[in-house]
Automatic annotation (TrEMBL):
The chain crosses the membrane at residues 12-32, 62-80, 87-104, 128-146, 153-177. One of its GO terms (cellular component) is plasma membrane. The keyword NAD does not apply. This is UPF0314 protein R03235. Pfam families: DUF2585 (PF10755).
Length: 188
């Protein structure tokens, strides 16, 4: 680990906390009416095409890579802000942050907002399977980033952003720009 001040001790309750957060998120999304998987009748591990009926419905897609990048940036920032926290505590915060985003992202308001400003990918919210995959990718990105320097993480996340943008015309930064630029344009 490249962060010597981040404590390595891991509590036995970390896995329990992570699983509890993920299960609570999935339960809440289920109560919000999110489907378990794609209504198209097909379940796959990877959705590489831009099929509107399967976007954000399968376990992983191009956005999963962006979630991994989010996990990388978030844990690096947390380790910098809270260098004396245990690695396990950082992971719990990362998972909680992912859960909060997944719940917000699947509210009717955000789904409609992304649909209005969309990148022609016809976003209609995540399936539970996709939301689970997104959180696993966030966790994987966080674990990977703790083995990398800040510069290496920044280069990798930038590469992911550019690559995904070139592949599907969307990325975290571009999506945020559309979201906020559309907000200000709509109120002008």
């Amino acid at each position: 680990m490249l962060y010597p001040s981040v404590r390595q001790q891991s509590s036995g309750s970390t896995a329990f906390a992570v699983v509890t957060i993920i299960v609570a998120k999935l339960l809440l999304l289920h109560l919000m009416g999110r489907p378990f998987s794609c209504n198209c009748g097909v379940v796959t591990l990877w959705q590489g095409g831009l099929d509107p009926s399967q976007n954000s419905q399968q376990f992983a897609d191009h956005y999963s890579l962006l979630h991994a990048g989010f996990g990388m940036i978030l844990i690096q920032w947390l380790a910098w802000m809270r260098p004396h926290w245990r690695f396990s505590d950082l992971l719990v915060v990362v998972v909680a942050s992912s859960a909060i985003w997944e719940i917000m992202e699947n509210t009717p308001l955000i789904i409609a907002r992304f649909g209005m400003l969309g990148s022609d990918l016809h976003y209609s919210g995540d399936s539970l399977l996709n939301s689970l995959g997104d959180t696993i990718f966030v966790l994987a990105g966080a674990v990977l980033a703790m083995k990398l320097s800040r510069l290496a993480t920044l280069v990798l996340v930038t590469t992911i952003e550019i690559t995904v943008y070139l592949l599907i015309g969307d990325s975290i930064l571009f999506g945020m720009f559309r979201f906020f630029a559309g907000s200000t344009m709509g109120h002008a």
